[in-house]
Amino acid sequence: MRYFFHIAYLGTHYNGWQKNPDAHSVQSVLEKALSQILKMPTYIIGCGRTDAHVHASQFFFHMDADEAWDYDLLFRLNKLLPNDIAVFDIIPTEGLPHARFDAIERSYNYFMHPYKDPFLNHVSAQYAIKDWDIEQMQRAATLLLRYNDYHAFCATPNKNEHTICNISAAQIFTDDTGDRLRFHISANRFLGKMVRTITGKLIDIGTGKLSVDEFENHLISPLLPQEIKPAYPQGLHLSKITYPYLDMAPRSIFSQMLLGEASVWEPVK
């Protein structure tokens, strides 16, 4: 039987989701906990990868089990896991759906603030910028919907079979004070450090270091050489995963607090 697990994690103390023998990862912590509870080696497959120190307010992984357990696995798992990883739901599935390959849309939010704040600094990226040109940033973000080859915005493009991604949403938001910014992006897939690299370019546009035309040139001609300078990792949140057969709202209260009420974050036009 295959099970989907609906989880969230704070990535501050992890070297990303993906298991690595030389680094502390979310996947390895979960596999160790499941193996301990189930009393057998247990392996899981996640819906994607996240970079070191990046967060996920919604994430899915799947696991196969020959026999169903006769105890509350959700309770035992959450009790054993550290406080920065939470399991919300364990969902039995029909057939063999795949947590990674079956996802049809992934969404990220990148949060930025201009001043030091002890309550934001681990979940939002501090950029000491007072006057963003947010209209130009949004103009550049809108261009992402017109192109689909993101070779120029991938840290390791040669590790992929192709660099085609279909962006379905790209929007800059500001909060009601005008200080904090949020970049929202959705696509069918993302490449390594792609969202952080795009965000870094939008920041350069917002501060006058890069023009919108220069940004578009790399969308028109993806093989043009350019500096890959990803934005800080702590501002990035994987926020939504959608499947043809599973579309659940994120359960993390903290991510909802960051997003606030709909009226707090205004889209830039």
Q: What do these coordinates show?
A:
By secondary structure, the chain is of the alpha+beta class. It folds into two domains: 2-92, Alpha-Beta Plaits (2-Layer Sandwich); 105-267, 2-Layer Sandwich (Alpha-Beta Plaits). Helix content is 22%, strand content 23%. It has six helices and ten strands. The chain has helices at residues 26-38, 73-80, 134-143, 194-206, 212-220, 253-259; strands at residues 2-9, 45-46, 55-64, 85-92, 105-113, 125-126, 167-174, 181-187, 236-242, 266-267. Strands 1, 2, 3, 4, 5, 6, 7, 8, 9 and 10 form a ten-stranded mixed sheet that branches. Helix 3 packs antiparallel against helix 4. The longest helix has 13 residues, at 26-38. The mean pLDDT is 93.
